[in-house]
Design a protein that fits this description.
The complex is a heterodimer of chains A (176) and B (176).
Chain A (H helix, E strand, L loop, with lengths): L1 H17 L17 E2 H6 L8 E11 L6 E5 L6 E5 L15 E14 H17 L2 H25 L3 E14 L2
Parallel strand pairs in A: 1-2, 4-6
Antiparallel strand pairs in A: 2-3, 2-5, 3-4, 5-6
Helix pairs in contact in A: 3-4
Chain B lengths: L2 H34 L5 E9 L6 H11 L5 E6 L4 E5 L2 E6 L4 E9 L1 H10 L6 H19 L13 H18 L1
Antiparallel strand pairs in B: 1-5, 2-3, 3-4, 4-5
Helix pairs in contact in B: 1-3, 1-4
The chains are: A alpha/beta (176), B alpha+beta (176).
Chain lengths: 176, 176
């Protein structure tokens, strides 16, 4: 009995010592540093893959289940970028919605090739057949428009993939 | 070590580790039920009102300051058909054509947030405790097989209950 208590206490101490005091998503600072906007960082995205980027944007959405990602909108609202929680960021609280954040992270890209788009289109068309016509029609139409826009972009830019840029965030602070 | 001594030690550790993990089992259990039913830590409050039509950005900001001063308006983005509002802990939209103003804010339930964040492992340092807990659960399962003797032990009716427990997930997975 005594031995098992000693064993448990040792494990507890090990776990406690393994923890570091670091900034959590609640420990935020307000900064007034001049940083580039989401739109500017996306303009340079192709040349920034796997490089650190620092930018600001307005939080339009936070994933409600785990807070593992949020979406930042540009100042003019024309574009938005997904930010994954990593590094010093344990997760994004949903209360951050509506705030302006300064984010530090690494630019990443997911390339959607022709095969991916073909498979996606096939799934959408298959889903359309099984859903209620009125409701499914609207949903499918929006997704198909999305897929078609991607194909048009690929054709226009001479690429065999459509890039989805996102950032693996390592730290953030609240600007507003 | 003879069987009698082994069974005694399994019982001691099973018991004391069991006492230690009651709290954590409750955290994962409660969080598991909530997550299974898609209940997040945030409740959403929707607001929908009709105000004056045709307001420009500044007029909308003035309206907001006068009528919703309790909720800080941080930014307004003018889009093609509406304005997107960024408020403290939420987002909204205003349609100049109809005067429709809608917005939603999010409120955190501290207790559900606490259990969910531990379950999702979005708390720094929790990973090691969660691993220890997972290994302990395996220990509980295996040690539990050998705690009883006689007709109700694993050699008796226990083996049929054990088999049933293995079959349930397999049947549900492959035949549902």
């Amino acid at each position: 009995m005594k031995n098992s208590i000693v064993l448990m206490m040792s494990i507890l101490l090990l776990v406690a010592c393994g923890q570091k005091k670091s900034s959590s998503s609640e420990n935020v600072t307000v900064q007034k540093t001049e940083v580039i906007d989401v739109a500017q960082v996306l303009d340079k995205a192709e040349n920034s893959i796997d490089k650190e980027v620092v930018f600001k944007g307005w939080v339009s959405h936070v994933c409600k289940h785990s807070g593992r990602r949020c979406f930042l909108k540009s100042e003019d609202g024309s574009v938005s970028i997904r930010v994954e929680a990593g590094g010093q960021i344990n997760g994004f609280n949903k209360e951050l919605t509506g705030s302006q954040l300064r984010v530090v992270g690494v630019m990443k890209v997911k390339k959607l090739d022709e095969q991916y788009l073909d498979e996606w289109q096939a799934k959408v068309e298959a889903a359309h057949k099984h859903e209620d016509v009125e409701e499914g029609g609207e949903h499918c139409s929006a997704e198909m428009d999305n897929i078609n826009e991607m194909r048009e972009w690929m054709k226009k830019n001479g690429k065999d993939y459509y890039p989805i840029y996102f950032v693996n965030g390592t730290d953030y602070s609240i600007l507003n | 070590m003879d069987k009698k001594k082994l069974r005694k030690w399994l019982r001691y550790i099973h018991r004391d580790l069991g006492y230690f993990f009651v709290g954590i089992i409750l955290i994962y259990g409660v969080s598991g039920v909530l997550l299974n039913h898609k209940m997040t830590a945030y409740s959403t409050t929707h607001h929908q009102i009709v105000i004056n039509q045709g307001l420009d950005k500044d007029e909308l900001a003035s309206y907001w300051k006068k009528n919703h001063a309790d909720l800080s308006l941080k930014n307004i983005i003018v889009r093609s058909n509406d304005y997107q509002l960024f408020v403290d802990g939420g987002v909204g939209s205003y349609q100049p054509s109809s005067g429709q103003l809608t917005y939603e804010t999010y409120q955190r339930n501290a207790i559900i947030d606490f259990v969910h964040r531990l379950h999702y492992n979005t708390v720094k340092g929790w990973k090691y405790m969660a691993d220890f807990f997972a290994v302990s659960l395996i220990f509980f399962a295996v040690s539990g097989l050998f705690l009883s003797k006689g007709k109700k032990s694993i050699k008796g009716r226990g083996k049929w209950i054990l088999l049933a427990g293995f079959l349930v997930p397999v049947i549900i997975f492959y035949f549902s």
